Structure formats: C-alpha cells, structure tokens
C-alpha cells in the first residue's frame, strides 16, 4: 500500500468539510459588507504636506552666500592640500581628511573629543574652541575633498 492511498480518505474528508465553508464565505460576508459604507470625508492628505513645504520655504535658505563661499573655499583648499600630501603618502591623506570630517561630525553631535583647556593653555592667543566649532561647511568640504584627493592620479 502506498502512502497516497492512506492519505486519500483524509483528504476527501477534509475537502468535504471545507468546501461548503469556502463557497459560502462570500454570501455570509456580503451582508456585512453592504451595511458598512465607504465614507470619503477625510481631510486632504496633500494639504498638510504642501503646508509644511510652504513653511520650510519661508525660513532662511540653507545655502546662504556665506555657506557657499565656505564650501567652495574648503573644496579648493582640500584638493590642493590632499594632492600635496598624497604625493608622499596616500593613506596619510585619507586619514587626515576623514579625521577632520570625523571630529567635525562628533562636534556637531555634542561629543567633544578635542581637549580645549589643554590646547588653550598651550596656544595663548588663539581661541581653540572657535577654531573647532565655527565654519562647519568649510571644514567638512575641506576634509572630504582632502580624503578624495588621495585617489586622484595625475
């Protein structure tokens, strides 16, 4: 005897029990569906999105002339410095560039890894805190292009 003949009576029995239930489901649910009406009185979903966009547009522009100047100056200085260092050592150029970006990223998140007091004692006439925390766009573009210049071949 094969296993198919042993399973066949069970399959027939289960089909005989489930077929009427499956066939009567649409009839049973039709009464349920006919009593619930679809209402289309919700607020317009695009109204909130467009109003939020109008509010964001009315604020100060993200790319002010000062930021664009910092980005362009940082990019030019980063390429020149990166090419100069990559002549001697390409890994050093990548490490310096990504180090600048990493320190700036941590500073923007509120994690201070630069020892301000120690450096301030060593460099009396320089404001070390403003060197690290100001002109973020300049330093980020400088660091990224410094690291990318290591991959340039000329």
Automatic annotation (TrEMBL):
Organism: Aaosphaeria arxii CBS 175.79
Annotated Gene Ontology cellular component terms: membrane
Protein name: FUN14-domain-containing protein
Location (main, coarse): membrane
Compartments where found: Membrane
InterPro entries referenced in this protein's UniProt entry, alphabetically: FUN14
Keyword entries, A-Z: Membrane, Signal, Transmembrane, Transmembrane helix
Pfam families documented for this protein: FUN14 (PF04930)
Family the entry assigns: Belongs to the FUN14 family.
Signal peptide (UniProt feature, chain positions): 1-18
Domain of life, per lineage: Eukaryota
Lineage, broadest ranks: Eukaryota, Fungi, Dikarya, Ascomycota, Pezizomycotina
